[in-house]
Amino acid sequence: MKKILYVTDAVKLEASALDFACYLCTLFRSKLTGIFLENLYKEARPAKMLKEAALEGGINVQTDNTDELKEQCTSDNIQLFKTICEKNGVTGIVHRDKGIPLEDVIIESRYADLLLIDASTSFSAQKESVPTRFVTDVLADAECPVIILPESFEGLNKIVFTYDGRSSSVFAIKQFTYLFPELRETTVVVMTVMDNNRPSPEEKYKLKEWLHDHYTNIEFIEQDGNVKYQLLDSLLPRTKDIIVMGAFGRNAFSTLFNPSHATPVLKLVTQPVFIAHH
Predict the structure, then answer these.
(1) Cα 123 to Cα 106: distance, rounded to the nearest angstrom
(2) Is beta strand 273-275 parallel, antiparallel or unpaired with respect to 146-148?
(3) Distance between CA atoms of residues 88 and 84, nearest Å
(4) What is the pTM of this model?
(5) Of the four listed, 68, 135, 144, 155, which is most buried by Cβ atoms within 10 Å?
(6) Are residues 189 and 157 in contact, defined by beta-carbon separation less than 8 angstroms?
(7) In this predicted model, what pLDDT tens digit does every residue of 27-67 receive, in sequence order?
């Protein structure tokens, strides 16, 4: 894996999320491309809201001129991005994307191996819950796998594969494995939470056989009950694990999760979440 994108609102850079991004780049000896979304043409946020966002990111701006405010924040955040990358021994590349944010991100993802984004990234004039509409659209339309960044990063303990026997959940497992061969020594947990429609014994055997060709330490956990609540109970304590989930479609989560299951997971867990779709 050579091209990793870090997507951010140019006005507000989540510096803490860069720790995980730099960890990945160090692991794979990759450069990190910072995608700074300037949203110059259809800015819906008033100056007051932009100033609040900038302040949350550590920048105190005095001007009420939207263009001047954006330019100052973009310049300061690009410098911060470069400083953090240099501190971590990572080569940081900057793209200033000045068009429509969603369109810019999708085009960038077409020519990348992996995209990293914070679940709170938003260009709406209204306060939004997590994940925001912008992030949900990115998950649905991105043309490479996406990782929802953790709030903070203190190291990687285990990989958690969510599995229900469907092709999309297996596709996500395979995509993660192909992108992260350096993690073959990391313990893998295959988690299945089902209230019905269990994977067949033959399917589970084939998955085990495939996983043993790629990983050295594998655990299997099967639980009964309500998928949404049981899944959250199982994932929340895993503070140093990365969670791998299947396809995120615009109308449905076509693996273990439907939209009512996916949203609570992305809202509540603080771990990195890897999402891939066909």
Answers:
(1) 16
(2) antiparallel
(3) 6
(4) 0.90
(5) 135
(6) no
(7) 999 999 999 999 988 788 999 999 999 998 889 988 988 88
